């Protein structure tokens, strides 16, 4: 039973209710202003508090609506605000931000498919030895993520219509429409036609179980709507405060002599913190399928929603839009797809699979620092 379900009616002055509001006020106060060391520290603390509050309210909403709707709500909410952050940074960054969307989206894919999945499998396996999940649903999600990633970030490297790793306008429009179609088809399969494929699997008989069947009764509609509103406030605060911190992040990256592309990695790490914590906590309760829904769903939303919005934003954005991956990134993506297939197909995993995914994440982070 989670803390969210143990206290179904938290007091209005609970920290999970207060922190998102305070973080939003801090965002309004600091937006567009130069921040000194003290303000940077305060913003970082509010950012961390907003992440924890977002996880709490996401669990309340998920307990009310059940799976896979709960994972979908969190993944889509985070991604929509992530897209807004990317567009904002691209508008303010000028030509130097040509690869920001690619770097951030690719980082999100690697963090979700290796970081979230790896941590969740390792957390679950350390407690239960072997963790079962639904291979049909996870396999379908992985196939969709792979197709989206290849169409949007690998194909531009090999097209010849435009100079460099970028699409021509018709190609970008096709990629955007294909991304929306793939994401829409997957959501329909996940929530309507094949919902059973995405339900948590019982640890004993390895059969799908409805996540609404919890020890505590689900929260009321009023509590769920309140948590949904506070979840959105917390996510806006997370992404907005990450934007406020971005000058300090860029300065820190430059002072350490790291590539400018590492800024996209840091942004993705910050934005995906709520989903990461929620997935690891679900794995600790034996609900690894929820963790996989969050990981693959976030990767899918990061590509499927970002590419169409970026394609639309190019109408008023100046400079090229570099979406094509470099050779090292394509190798890492290919390794991730192969390893993920070997992880998903059996429908069961041990700590070894979790460790392999975490090593792939470490390789990505290392090569992002030392390309």
TrEMBL record:
Residues 38-191, 227-368 form the Sodium/calcium exchanger membrane region domain. It is found in: Membrane. It is a multi-pass membrane protein. The keyword Transmembrane applies. Its main location: membrane. Keywords: Membrane, Transmembrane, Transmembrane helix. InterPro entries: Alkaline_pH_Ca-Antiporter, NaCa_Exmemb. The chain crosses the membrane at residues 12-32, 38-57, 69-93, 105-126, 138-159, 171-189, 224-242, 262-282, 294-317, 323-345, 352-369. This is Sodium/calcium exchanger membrane region. GO terms for molecular function: potassium:proton antiporter activity; sodium:proton antiporter activity. GO terms for cellular component: plasma membrane.
